[in-house]
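Lab notebook, bench 4. Still working through the backlog of constructs that have no structural model yet. Next entry is a single chain of 278 residues. Request: give me the structure tokens for it.
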Amino acid sequence: MSNPDYTDDDLAILRSGSWGAEPDVPAESGTPDEPGSAESEPETAEQADEGKSMHETDAPIEPRPQPGPPPPAQPVVAASANQVARVELQPGGIKAAIEAILAVADVPVSVREFSAALIVSERAVETALDQLRQDYRGYDDAAGTHEPRGFELRQVASGWRLYAREDFSPWVGRFVVGTQTVKLTRAALETLAVIAYQQPATRSYISQVRGVSSDAAVRNLLTRGFIAETVPDETGATQYITTDTLLEKLGLNSLDELPALAPYLPDPGQVASTETID
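Model written out:
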């Protein structure tokens, strides 16, 4: 039988034992034995129910919030922290914009250059680059297997650039054959190796190492952009160093990644002998 002093919802709250939607209100001054003091208790359950029902008429109980899914990720913030990056509003967002830049870039693009072009933070660019590199490599997840692409994203010469996957080099090489690609001569390769491992190096030093004049090879490498002039030595002779173009062609991020020379050097006893070394 329902009580006219409270509703069915109030009865459900009482049976569940939940209460306390409102903060405790300090009791009026008085002694524990006096009515209205903080320690006085209702004499019966009916009186307690009636008091709760009267309290609800002024402040009805709101349902407790239920746990839900986590909030969506915040959009990428542009240079100004008060507005959303405009590129993020385009289909594909930052990742698609980076792909568009890589498609037209003829040199590796640094994170700072991406950030300046897209007007987003460098951290947002780095996150997008990591995601793109993973997408191109292929991966498995709950949705299934995502096959790798025919190209990959590499970090070379302090920047990022797209390269054909090494797995497809036989077919890519077959396509490239017949184009106007001109290979470096053996003299140019030897000269380039001396400069790469001993830079800065002068022409006279290169000629001493090779045993022949290297003037033509140096001019060839300068024309192709593989080497560049730097500060002269104490005698005023021009010195040469390698450029980022060489790192880009070799797919390296720095000269520290060049292979060690020790495994390719002849044995000291062989050098001292009169035997001819190929």
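Notes after review: The two ends are 109 Å apart (CA to CA). The chain has eleven helices and seven strands. Flag for follow-up if needed.
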